[in-house]
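Sequence decides. Our protein:
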Amino acid sequence: MKHPALPAPSGNLPSVVTDELPEIIHRSGANATFAAQEFFFGTIRNEHTRRAYLHAVRLFLGWVEKHGGGELTNIAPWHVGKYFEEMAATTSIATRNQHLSALRHFFDGMVTRHAIVLNPALSVRGERYSAIEGKTPEISIDQARTLLSSLDTSHVIGLRDRAILAILVYTSSRAGAVAKLKCGNLYNAGNQWMLHFAEKGGKSREIPVRGDLQELITAYIDAAGLRDAPKDTPLFQSALKKQRKLTGKAIHVNDICRMMKRRLKDIGLPLLYSPHSFRVTTITDLLEQGVALEDVQRLAGHADPRTTRLYDRRQRKITRNIVERISV
């Protein structure tokens, strides 16, 4: 049975919707273009996942065109297998499995919208990969304290940065969730101040605010003039360059990452640390104190305790102590 071609989307679509799609998709017809737009800009709601999957698909389709693949309908499982064999020399197993997942979902949408007959990535097997410990570097407690105390808090930007870093430390939250905070997400629940985070995957978390963290946040709010701001006002706002003034617009997660790199560089700490390093430090510290894994998992917002264990660096410290005792 021959299926009619899907109509091209009407209206003015953002240029990113069409410009970022590889030319091979457009050449494969309206159904292929519709399926790609639906997958990247409709099905995937997380911007980080969208960026990663789009990157993976563009790399593969670029490889296909370079090797004479021609059209989407000509792509076979052996193309996918050969591509990943070549990737093995320069990428990790985790990266290759992520790219394979992206291709499987992408071509599945193509099959659903009748742009191709079979999913060429479906029969290609991924590689076994088991991580005992995550790769995120741990910033030590002393380094974290040094970083927090090094900030110049004589102006609102220094107070903002200190509050952001302190929230990362004392709530084990992700930088993306901190960037999304609104003034209404900080509230008094009776006898305890709380922060309400909108986490990835549509998850929502409420974390109690300890006393010293509350003081740091309050100092920033007062300096920024946000005490009586509407609840939907961004709590942490971007700054005008070199003017030490806030823009009124929400800070982006990338700005938080760049801010931390600048602060690390200012005091001579390693630049390999990222906002995620605080999650490693907080989780490891709590587990070292004997806090139950289930409680730490709840604080970190992990659905599976195995994910929380990936942040546990206690075993690394034991290993380091052992190798330092080698007598040779």
Remarks:
- The first strand starts at residue 186 and ends at 188.
